[in-house]
Amino acid sequence: MAYDELQVVLMPNGALQLEWATVSGTMTNRQNLLQNEIYDHYLSGPDGWLFFLGFTSNKTPISSSLNFWRKFAALYINTLRLSSDIEELRGDINLLPGDEELSALLDAVPLMTGSEYLQPEVLSALWRELHQSFRSKIDAYEGTVEQFFKEHSPDVHLAGRIYFHLVENKDHEAPFAFLATYSTMVGEDGESKHLPLKFALQEYGDDQAKLLDLLVTVDTAAKKSSLIREMRDSGDLFHPLAWSGHQAFLFLREIPLYEESGILCRIPNWWKKKSANISVVINVGGKMPSMIGLEALLDFEPRLMFGDTEISIEEARRLLEESEGLAFLKNKWVVVDQEKLRQTLETYEKARQLSGDEGMTLLEAMRFSISPQKKMEEQNAENLSSVSHGEWLKKVFNSLQKPGETCKVKTSGTFKARLRAYQQDGLNWLYTLHSLKLGGCLADDMGLGKTIQVLAFLNALKAEVATSTNATLPSLLILPASLLANWISEIERFYPSLSWFVAHPDMHKPGKVPVPDNGQLRALDLVITTYQMIQRYKWLLENCWNYVILDEAQAIKNPGTKQTKTVKGLKSENRIVMTGTPVENRLSDLWSLFDFVNPGLLGSSKEFGEFTKQLASAPDGYARLRNVVSPFILRRLKSDKTIISDLPDKVEMKSWASMSKKQAVLYQEVIEGINQTLEESEGIQRKGLILSTLMKLKQLCNHPAQYLGEELFEEKESGKFQRLREICETIYEKREQVLVFTQFKEMAEPLSRFLAIIFQREGLVLHGSVPVGQRKKLIEKFQGSNYVPFFVLSLKAGGVGLNLTAANHVIHFDRWWNPAVENQATDRAFRLGQKKNVMVHKFLTKGTIEEKIDRMLTEKARLSDEVVAASGENWITEMSNDELRDLFTLTV
Questions:
Q1: Residue 887 half-sphere exposure toward CB, CA atoms < 13 A
Q2: In this predicted model, what pLDDT tens digit does every residue of 293-316 receive, in sequence order?
Q3: Treating both helix axes as pointing N-terminal to C-terminal, what angle do 620-629 and 99-107 enclose, rounded to 10 degrees?
Q4: 357 pLDDT higher than 80
Q5: What is the DSSP letter of 660?
Q6: How crowded is residue 252: how many other Cβ atoms within 10 Å of its Cβ?
Q7: Between helices 849-859 and 881-888, what is the axis angle to 10°?
Q8: What string of DSSP letters covers 75-111?
Q9: pLDDT tier for residue 242 given thresholds of 50, 70 and 90
Q10: What is the DSSP letter of 868?
Q11: How do the domains of the chain map onto residue ranges?
Q12: Which residue range or ranges hold the Helicase ATP-binding domain (predicted)?
């Protein structure tokens, strides 16, 4: 069964967007009605749906992302409701969220699209938007605020003027004092003051109507609480009261009930923080183990704690003899709930038995911290137990989460790149994992140089082997076929001494991969293959590798596919995965990646499935899950303040594409044709022949269908289309926007159709045939608040006069071979008003005229600046026949 679920996406600019997603399972009519009602509010205006969401009942299940924002909006509504002067101030009231409340919310963030953008300042901005929504609504409302709230939800009660206070006393017999107060205007200046409730009897005298109006919240609470009812009826409510610990406990546990009724409560902080409850804390990894890796045996020590204070088993047992309520222990108040305390002691005893003499492996400790109840065989153990890291383990995880503070790993002189500061941190992180025999996921944003960091790591590994007597196995890199050219180019540029071999037929003549013998393999540093080829070559599966490295690792996000199962069956000393796609968007994807990187860390698929089912009722599970996986994920965003300072505002990169077989065959035919006629032509005829051939080769590099004049542009027939998918899938996962430039008008619509499939929605197209009057509307739509993921532009139509700063990616699908023209197009996104770093992707087809001309322009900057800018492509026609043959020849 499958149904459409409404989900919330946090956009890079901090805005919230609702999207439908098809998920497996069933949905009740009540759930369906609620999410449709929420979506109707969303469509009616951007400012009302979140405010409406805050009033919806939390008893009706909705998606985890929607439920998180329901809690956020409900927190705002509750803060508004509990403001005693809301009726007088209305929209002018000034509300600020509490730091502790925001922190608790951030800890409970579910895995959802855009969660990486969620920072305290984003929550604060959305809080202000909620307040602005309330302000605009209440300013237009003629009734009271109470009536306004009742229209939204009959069960919501505004705070009255009654306050309940509970404070600690020094009296041992009655260690707590209770007092009810009310706020009233006193003095000539009309200043609001708090007075004991007994003075209300004097102030209102015989005016019973005013007195009843004041006590309406007390009457509401009295209907639900026998304690308040007895105090009201006996008159004790109007006097200061001295209470025992048991009486205070009865009062404290009913606080939510009083606040729901509209009574404001002032109580001790230790109760708000729940630090008065006793729990079991498992301290793991105090000392360095004798071995490393997930099977490293760590010392294991259970402790009984309340707050940050440890108590002995004897002290805890003595508490069992206390009556239900509060007891004073070690200068702190502790809750004595007989049943929970008994369960806690049972958990403690089980933990002691588990520790025994052997301890616990790192793998077991991490899994325990995700689901304590699984290990303790108790349904409620997650409320009783937690795992804390001992000194050694704390130091290890700190070095993983703060790689900039660890020892700097050095590369040898054979590595030609100069690492940026954050890239050096990435190398440190990879090497720390290596030293611990743990796998990791390098998930940096696209354009931050994941390839360079991994090459630097391979260089450091080789340097390590060079200083030891131990031989090492080669590593295996698996990637999409479209990335082969990219990796080869990066290796040749940054690590030319790396000994590598590509296990792919397109890289060998006559299209057959030779099987290296054992000696040849041992002489290699790296074997490169693709996800398709790994299933074809048995020798890749039979050998054991030093590292198996996956690029675009989302290729194994579906654990049930043959491809994923094959990759996970590879034998290796360790594993690294790379992805520019956020790995925390979907729980199933996260499990599959970690099942490869550190098998067993998140349990079996069934165990993880059971854990995820409990997240709806135990949202703190998201925080526990993050704590476990975060040391093994390194993700830096372009928007990070520590990264921005280390990046230029505009990052230009070459994106290499391989040719499909059809492209290669047609390309060769064109070259053979010109070789026969080039010698026989001269003058204008020769110039026309060369320019015509250039045009054909450009079209072929884009897609065979463009060259052949066909309607169907199949993805598999173009290396550029495949590369475009990989880049744009990552852009879509992050809900960013992209400009795609092409110099061919006929390519605009095929590109737009293809991109609409990737982004699951329509984009925009602008070329010379689009009327001038429509261009302004297209720009406004792209720059507007609704998400428009892509804009395909012909280079001439979109190269000047446009302001498209909503985009932070620019793709030059085909090259103009005139840097001035390309830069002018890029500046549609990179100009005044742009607040993001712009990533510029320049597509090049490996081994073709595109690569060769790009190399010429790079090597001859003067030619680029002076000749090309003035003459366009005409400079190519001045080349000799031999130079042209070399330029046109396909070298794949």
A1: 21
A2: 888 888 888 889 887 888 899 998
A3: 70
A4: no
A5: P
A6: 20
A7: 120
A8: HHHHHHHT-TTHHHHGGG------HHHHHHHHHT--S
A9: very high
A10: I
A11: 2-152, 162-272, 278-397, 402-644, 652-888
A12: 431-600
CB atoms within 10 A of CB 649: 10
Q: Which CATH superfamily is domain 652-888 in?
A: P-loop containing nucleotide triphosphate hydrolases (3.40.50.300)
DSSP-derived pairing of the beta strands 571-578 and 544-550: parallel
416 contacts 495 by C-beta, under 8 angstroms: yes
Is the CB of residue 737 less than 8 Å from the CB of residue 753?
no
Residue 359, pLDDT > 80, answer no
Burial profile 538-565: b = 16 or more Cβ within 10 angstroms, e = fewer? eebeebebbbbbbbbbbbbbebeeeebe
User: Which among 526, 612, 542 has a CA at the least distance from the CA of 576?
Assistant: 526
Classify strands 633-634 and 360-361 as parallel, antiparallel or unpaired. unpaired
- Do 402-644 and 652-888 fold alike per CATH? yes
762 is written with which tokens? 């329509």
Residue 290: other Cβ atoms inside 10 A: 7
Laid out side by side, the sheet with 633-634 consists of 500-502, 526-530, 475-479, 544-550, 571-578, 440-442, 633-634
Contact 361, 354 (CB under 8 A): no
Among 828, 853, 548, 838, CA closest to 694: 853
Please tell me the distance from the alpha carbon of residue 439 to that of residue 293, in angstroms, as a whole number.
9
CATH 3.40.50.10810 applies to domain 402-644: yes
CB 548 within 8 A of CB 570: yes
Two tokens, residue 513: 């991969």
pLDDT confidence band for 388 (50 / 70 / 90): confident
pLDDT for position 855: 84
Contact 702, 773 (CB under 8 A): no
Read off the pLDDT of each residue in 794-805 and give the average, rounded to a whole number: 73
- In sequence order, the 6+-apart residues with CB closer than 8 A to the CB of 353 are none
Residue 266, both tokens: 């002032």
d(CA 85, CA 597): 55
**Per-position DSSP letters for 216-231, written without gaps between them:** HHHHHHHTT-HHHHHH
The whole-number average pLDDT for the span 341-348 is 87
State the amino acid at position 742 in one-letter form. Answer: T
Which sign, positive or negative, has the C-alpha torsion 628, 631, 635, 640? positive
